Amino acid sequence: MWGLILPSLLAALLAGFSGGLLGVTALRLRLSALGYAMAHAAFAGAALGLWLGLPPLWTALSLALVVAALLGPLAERTGLPPDAMLAILFPLTMALGFLFIALTPGLPLTSPALTILWGSLLGVGWDDVLMLLALLGVAGGFLLLFRREVWATLVERRLAEEAGIPTRPILWALLLLLGAGVAASLRLVGGLLVYALLFLPASAASQLAFDLRQQFLLAPVLGSASALAGVGLSWWADLPVGTAIALASCGLFLGAWAASPRRRVPLEKPPFPP
Amino acid sequence: MDEALALEEIWAAYPGGRGAALQGASLRLPFGGLGLLIGPNGAGKTTVLEVFLGFVPYRGQARVAGLEVHAHLREVRRRLAYLPQALFFPPDTPCRTVDLVAMGRFGFLRPWQRLPKEERRKALTALERFGLGDKADWPIGHLSGGQQRKALLARALAKGAETLLLDEPFASLDPEARLDLAQAIFRLREEGMTILAVVHEEELLARADQVWLVRAGKTLALSPPFPGLPASWASLCGA
Questions:
Q1: Do A164 and B137 make contact, defined as CB atoms within 8 angstroms?
Q2: How many A-B residue pairs are in contact by the CB < 8 A criterion?
Q3: What is the mean pLDDT of residues A201-221?
Q4: B5: alpha, beta or left, given left = phi > 0 and alpha = psi -120 to 50?
Q5: Residues A28/A154, Cβ–Cβ less than 8 Å
Q6: What is the pLDDT of residues A114-158, one digit of tens each?
């Protein structure tokens, strides 16, 4: 049994950790549509893979990365905010996904392209674990190495530019990592609920910690906890794993909101320890 | 010696914008000078500041301490401090006041380098100079509008900038806060900082060395003395 569940548990741990870590940046950049757009880009990629006879996971990841890589430059060229660009890319990628499915003869509803939409506990393999591990290494390394630059870009971009920080490559790299993070978590959580892992742990962390650095430390822990709790709930109550992880993340957010020091801060005292 | 700030026949346009925001603008401000940009909304005042910061593409000559902006952007930005227009931090901004002040020095450090304690001490000292020492650990968004502006002035001081670019620093402040902020700006000027400010108010006028009227993307240097200016302000800035 452990041979079956171990990849899922490890994938949940890693997806929760990287989702929490990257979610702090997505929350601060107000990219709420990111989950939808990336999930459907990956869905279209998986469908494309099935149509062309290529491994769906890799084509899903590739298309999600292409969309993430295009997001920053497209937003800049069109003068639209990244959130609006996501709203444009979302229906386009969804339409492409259904087009590729329509072009693939005899594709059943249980095909990998469609399980990517709602996740699968048993569908997670060691290749997913390795991919999540690689993502965590790259994302964690980037955030650690460029922690000051990322922090400044997320706090106030114009002041960061004035301080000599090249915010454009920082922002584009963050968008790319966010796209990769969503794509790598798809097989476990599913495209329809992947943003639960991206936004809820980060939102819970923002309820418990004022400082961005503290949020970066707390969100991955909360993300891992809610992903593991979700896998446990899915196993115990025989629920779809994406649903269970989303429910666990929501529960965690509600708990953080209830315990939030933000609601108790006396105005005359600083909320940070001196 | 080179001027602190110099523009010569600058044409600047924002990507996707309608036409050029600056159309042959020129100005020269010596080191230690206080210059003001006045004019109607949309005339190009903010664009002048953004040219110096390298935020907007331009044609012509733009120099900071003799350095051409595009060619020496990193060095130019080290010499400048900027207070953007309408920048107010909302209460949920996840940043301590002292960290925002220290942020000005980030461009001087290597990515993997830890922020030296000396830099944090500089930030604290700068905040104390502006009467915000007890607010250092507060979230920046919990400070009043006037205090936030003074924290940004402290940031300029801690950064060690030679020149301060202010974009409507008095906007949305009450008269008392405006006076307080003007005193803080004068203190920086007395210490030798060059200041170029976009203003719609008179607080800085009495001590200005140079005033430029910006209209339709062009600059017109007004002749001193400026005390008579407030009376004609409305007509100058009008159509």
A1: no
A2: 87
A3: 91
A4: beta
A5: yes
A6: 666 667 767 778 888 898 899 999 999 999 999 999 999 999 888
Give the tokens for residue A75: 């937003």
Residue B232 has a pLDDT of: 58
Considering only CB atoms, which residues of chain B are within 8 Å of chain A?
15-16, 53, 55, 74, 77-78, 80-82, 84, 87, 89, 92-96, 100, 103-109, 111-112, 115, 135, 137-139, 142, 155, 159
CB contact under 8 A, B106 and A152: yes
3-state secondary structure of B12: strand
Q: B203 to chain A nearest CA, in Å? A: 25
**Interface pTM (ipTM) of the complex?**
0.82
Integer CA distances (angstroms), A52 to A44, A117, A153, A224, B6, in order = 12, 19, 40, 35, 60
How many angstroms separate the CA atoms of B104 and B162, rounded?
13
- Render B172-238 in DSSP notation, one character per residue: T--HHHHHHHHHHHHHHHHTT-EEEEE-SSSTTGGG-SEEEEEETTEEEEEPSP-TTHHHHHHHHH-
Give the whole-angstrom CA distance, residue B218 versus residue B75: 27
A77 token code pair: 């060229």
The string of pLDDT tens digits covering residues B6-53 is: 999 999 888 766 778 888 889 999 999 999 998 888 889 999 999 999
CA distances from B217 to B11, B24, B48, B83 (A): 8, 7, 9, 21
CA separation for the pair B59, B8 (Å, rounded): 9
Which residues in A121-151 are b (16+ Cβ under 10 Å) and which e? bebbeeebbebbeebbebbbebbeebebbbb
Cβ-in-10-Å burial (0-12, 13-18, 19+) of B117 comes to: exposed
